[in-house]
Amino acid sequence: MLREPVRDIWLDERDSPYSIMKKMQEAGGFTGREMGEAVEYLRELFGRDYGRILTFPADIIATGLRGIIAQLLKMKMFDLVITTCGALDHDIARSFSNYYKGSYFEDDVKLRRKGIHRLGNVFVPLESYGPLIERKMQELLNSEYSKEESVPTYRLSWSIGKMINNESSFLYWAYKNQIPVVVPGITDGAVGYQLWLFRQSHRGFKVDVLEDEQLISDFVYSHKKLGALIIGGGISKHHAIWWAQFRDGLDIAVYVTTAYEYDGSLSGALTREAISWGKIRPSGKHVTVHCDATAVLPFLIHGALFAKE
Predict the structure, then answer these.
(1) Alpha-carbon distance 289 to 69, whole Å?
(2) What are phi and psi of 304, to 5 degrees?
(3) Tens digit of each residue's pLDDT (9 = 90 or more) over 190-210
(4) SS percent in the chain: helix, strand, coil, step 5
(5) What are the C-alpha distances in Å from 128 to residues 113, 118, 140?
(6) Tens digits of per-residue pLDDT, 9-26?
(7) Are 204 and 146 in contact (CB under 8 A)?
(8) Residue 279 a catalytic site member
(9) Is 8 exposed, middle or buried (0-12, 13-18, 19+ CB in 10 A)?
């Protein structure tokens, strides 16, 4: 229990984000240590023969982290993505319009009158969201799916990426590199609403989520080792660890979350709880970083991809 002493951090001009995180790992506490462990696990995940899963919620796609997600898929650093419907919404909206830096403290009644949605401290003009997504999705659905009976969400995601045709888009890079993007809660967002609306005049159209599940099953069983970067919680997180349990759990798991476990939520559940369910191997490498992903993810990914020893 008393093997590794706490070491003080001394900074110098030669330090990089990675070297600082290495020092944070040796500093003993608290979230800094978790960040140091996380970057080492991600370096192993990116450098070894793992089936690599990325999960995230929609909100980060409304921020500049969308660029990091797109970059990861451009570089083929993950083999499977699981996310929520809103991630598709924001990727479409930001590919054809702009969101704006705002404030948590603006008058929301005033914003409503001006036709501005507030997502935390990001402002989303109404015309950049619902009407734009409806126009783009109905054009896509009428051109590609009017004669098709059913489509899984990963193929729908590729179709959206192809339609976007913009290198800023994570869906574009998923399509370009044929990385499946699975959306288990596909109806919970603007894109999902457009699917429902399209079906009103195309009754044979269906979204086949069970084909998505088959793809995940095949993916899980085709890899000897599995690793995941799980940003946030909810359905995306659970879908990844749920399937991992059927092959005895993840070998590497890095969680980044602001949620805590004391309310019993899945979003707040730590990696160690997943061990009890068989979703992470007892021998696996795992860490939970309690931090806003917009603050920590750029440093973790830079350290994992670009740092030199």
Answers:
(1) 18
(2) -75, -30
(3) 999 999 999 999 999 999 999
(4) 50, 15, 35
(5) 16, 12, 17
(6) 999 999 999 999 999 999
(7) no
(8) yes
(9) exposed
